[in-house]
Amino acid sequence: MALTHVAASSSRSNLLKPISTALSSTPFLRRSISSASDDSTTITIETSVPFTAHRCDTPSRTVDTTPKELMTFFRDMATMRRMEIAADSLYKAKLIRGFCHLYDGQEAVAVGMEAAITKKDCIITAYRDHCTFLGRGGTLLEAGFYGGHGIVGAQVPLGCGLAFGQKYSKDETVTFALYGDGAANQGQLFEALNMSALWDLPAILVCENNHYGMGTAEWRAAKSPAYYKRGDYVPGLKVDGMDAFAVKQACKFAKEHALKNGPIILEMDTYRYHGHSMSDPGSTYRTRDEISGVRQERDPVERIRKLVLSHDIATEKELKDIEKEIRKEVDEAIAKAKESPVPEPSELFTNVYVKGYGVESFGPDRKEVRAVLP
Amino acid sequence: MATVFQGLGAATAISASNSFDSKKFQLPSRRSLSVRKDSILVVRSDGRVNHIMNRGARRAEQLITNAVATKADGSAASTASKPGHELLLFEALREGLEEEMERDLRVCVMGEDVGHYGGSYKVTKDLANKYGDLRVLDTPIAENSFTGMGIGAAMTGLRPIVEGMNMGFLLLAFNQISNNCGMLHYTSGGQFKIPIVIRGPGGVGRQLGAEHSQRLESYFQSIPGIQMVACSTPYNAKGLMKAAIRSDNPVILFEHVLLYNLKERIPDEEYVLSLEEAEMVRPGEHVTILTYSRMRYHVMQAAKTLVNKGYDPEVIDIRSLKPFDLHTIGNSVKKTHRVLIVEECMRTGGIGASLTAAISENFNDYLDAPIICLSSQDVPTPYAGTLEEWTVVQPAQIVTAVEQLCQ
Questions:
Q1: Is B143 a catalytic residue?
Q2: Which residues form the signal peptide (chain B) (predicted)?
């Protein structure tokens, strides 16, 4: 595809190959508003790097999309980014307590995956799940989101169980079980993989490889950091996890594969800007140059922004306005959360069991009956 | 204590319960029963029977009263319940399992050698031939992950039964059982249900060695969100298996390696027991003996000696290890004022220890003597036969304890 240089701006990256030559702004203002929700024009984009495969064919590097999808990607990723930054401040203000694992930098994985699947497909992930949850729509069962789990690696057998349920019910849907490069060394993962391959379960294991298992770099934890190959007999695909379209393409490919041939591993090469959690500065085991380097070269939101601008779907100002809107939305959500009440003491015992037994529960001094288990 | 009947989801109103005097064993007329074509019987441990409408049951029921022969009702019971069939405990488990698999397509089994091999204790024999390899799934030796898989499958709505070939192997799956199985309903605000049954044989066998003689009820009892039951007779094995499968909560069903070949006559009709109820094995006046699983038989053996010596022990098989049936236990304590707990669990932190605490707190005023708890010794179970015998509570020790209590 011929590179067409846009005269107006000098900041176009060589990675992008705009189709149309955008020139004066005024007529395009009108055109870009309508094209922002345009569902019918197909834009063809090439992924940043080709896919690498293990025991399977690679999907095509060329991805079709529409202006509407591009704008949705931008909006969703910007919301996720904004939400995580807000969570950072809230944690420092001690309004979010405990451990807080932020996803900024990895948004492309969540957004790309959502674009390739339906709400009937299941996603299960570990604790870096705020954006995945948001991508699913913010509900659990109806949106096919199964958490959200604290023990590293324990969600992978659960994910294979979800796939088992789908195969049992003949749903023709798949399960994406996400884990990190740290969890990739868990034994239960290989056990679950063995069983999924044995019974052809529609399970797609997605390794979100951000190259650091908390403070330990991948080369210090894994003899073979080629996580997409570690399935051995299970095919794998290595994907640029900072490119939402590569993720979308890979997930589409994986879904088709899993429904026909059983499990497949996707390794998303991604990066987190924050430390492992808010208690980790994130700079003791990597250099600040590395972090800022990735932010400059590979930031997923920036990539979409550049695509949107180069295809003239929206102007800089419109994108900035969208970001302002998102910021307001997130601020309103924070305000609502701040106003919401903390749970009542009586709620301590709700939902321990599905149906209660009238069993009494005592306070710590074992003298006073605190509640009857509902 | 109300009989909580889980998992029925019956939309129709519960018909007026017919209470029957357990001593009289009156069978209702056939005509009155025929209206209740779809009912299921809930047989309570004190002999009362309730009818509950159930869309799922297919057979018209003939009323069965207390089929467990209790001391007072012995002869009358056997004449009234002669119809029925005799089987061994593992067959009773299989019958319960098969009936539930037939009734609900979501019920499936997974475990090592449950399918083609038929189960290491034959509990799942021939089920794979009947229901296929997916519903009776042979897993590789990977307890941690196939238990996790069972939990994940339960989250999607299936009702899996995970078999541990020996309960001790489930220690490998402790993370999944504690963190996922027990917690997910709570942490998801009630959105995820885990209707899983985890079952398997445990307990001290005949010289099986320390690693294969584990009693895990003590390790699992603190996990919030799960229920634990222990079966001891073919009758309660089938009933508890069915109840566990129908329950929407995760249930751990403890079986015992040495009890699989017990024979008993059980009713032909469908019955489901209550998961939280204890069973009155032998009513008495002098002392309450609380026990479960295999120790029930040691207690009954000791009871014979005790009766000859003039004592009248009340024996209760607690069955429900979590939560305890404090209602039945409490009524007994209020009557006899003396408690002896006989268990196979370890002394430290076992079921007996928790039960002692629970009874002391709730019924301290009714106790005339401190509670005596007889448990297994805190040692890894030896291989040598004699040593193994001394690890577990023997009938002679039970007799001595009762004599001590009743001084």
A1: yes
A2: none
